[in-house]
Amino acid sequence: MAHDLSDVAGFRVDGATNVLTDISGDVTQVTVNGGNGLIEDTGLGDANRTEQRDIGAVKAVSITGMINTTTRAIFAPLAAKGTSVTKTIEVKIASSGSARYITGEANVGPVSLSIPIGLQTFTAEYRSTSGAGFTSTSVAAS
Amino acid sequence: MSGYSDIEALWLARVRAISGYSDSNTSRGKWGILNSGASERYVIVKPGSRDRQMNSIGGGRLETSQTVIEVWQKYRDDGDTLTTLQTAVDTLLDALDRYPRLGGLGSTIRQGEIAAVREVMQIPADAPQWLKVELIGETDEETVINYQE
Fold first, then answer.
1. Helices (DSSP H) in B27-145: which residue ranges?
2. Global ipTM
3. pLDDT at B144
4. N or C: which end of chain A has fewer CB within 10 A?
5. Inter-chain residue contact A7 with B58, CB threshold 8 Å
């Protein structure tokens, strides 16, 4: 079976006025960092190092994209001084199936704008406000 | 604004906006004007190569199109013809560089610039009737594909 390409993917996020905005055409990469955090619990006398699951989940989504009027309005204010307002995010992974979206409410993490000679770009990181992390679902965010 | 034909039209429009160029001594791929006797210099634009690649998730595509801008100078003598052509090329570059989006009104053109200037050619080589320089215009256009599957 052929593997999936980015043409079926998408990304939506709350804009400056907290309206969910589709910026898929401006985004060049989405990285979902999930799974469990692990902590080492090797004790004296253990012959090998051991680990156990940390409390809660790793729960960050980072994106990289290109600046235009839409993304500048979203990310320039965040880069300037951040926000205390949480944002809804939606990562679309596939066009069908029970696990085609990762959604949730997130705090805004580090945001950067890069202005080299040529194309202006941004990066942003969102971290789930839920201790359980984001939701893998067939339902789009609203 | 969309597609190569519109981009080539923008390049030609920018050339025609420069003093000394009009529809009588410029064209899109009509080399017959070289025989018109209308001018000592002609500019003819034609398509170059095109590169296409995806540039965002969800169907964004970047298409980089080359437009070859031929500058033809009637060869008169071994004295001033070459320097006249060089001066004309510099004038074209200076004018075209001032419109990095080609003056297009749409929002899809990210950048349009003269990326290269080729060497002067004598045509024919052994007994030149013309000198020709090619300016390589390079235009980046962004579109979003509406997938149907």
1. 81-96
2. 0.76
3. 87
4. N
5. yes
Interface probe for A, chosen from B52, B53, B55, B56 (most Cβ of A below 10 Å), is: B56
Omega within 30 of 0 (cis) for the link into A110: no
Beta-strand pair A36-40/A51-57: antiparallel
Contact A129, A105 (CB under 8 A): yes
Q: What is the pLDDT confidence band of residue B104, given thresholds at 50, 70 and 90?
A: confident
Cβ atoms of A8 and B127 closer than 8 Å? no
Contact A24 B54 (CB under 8 A): no
Q: For residue A109, which of A66, A60, A69, A44 has the smallest C-alpha distance?
A: A60
β-bridge pairing A101-114 and A20-22: unpaired
Is the entire prediction scored with pTM above 0.90?
no
Integer Cα distance of B101 and A128 in angstroms: 40
Nearest Cα neighbor of A108 from A70, A75, A71 is A75
Is the CB of B57 less than 8 angstroms away from the CB of A66? no
Which token pair is A96? 């069908």
Please give the single-letter amino acid code of residue B15: V
What rounded mean pLDDT belongs to chain A? 94
B23 pLDDT more than 60? yes
pLDDT of residue A129: 92
A119 touches chain B (CB under 8 A): yes
Q: Give the contacts of A86 (CB within 8 A, at least 6 positions apart).
A: A105, A106, A107, A108, A129
Cβ(B48)–Cβ(B116) under 8 Å?
A: no
Q: At residue A137, what is the residue type?
A: T
Q: Do B59 and A7 touch (CB under 8 A)?
A: yes
Taking every pair of Cα atoms in chain B, the longest distance, rounded to a whole number of angstroms, is 63
pLDDT at residue B105, as a whole number: 67
Structure tokens belonging to residue A107: 């705090």
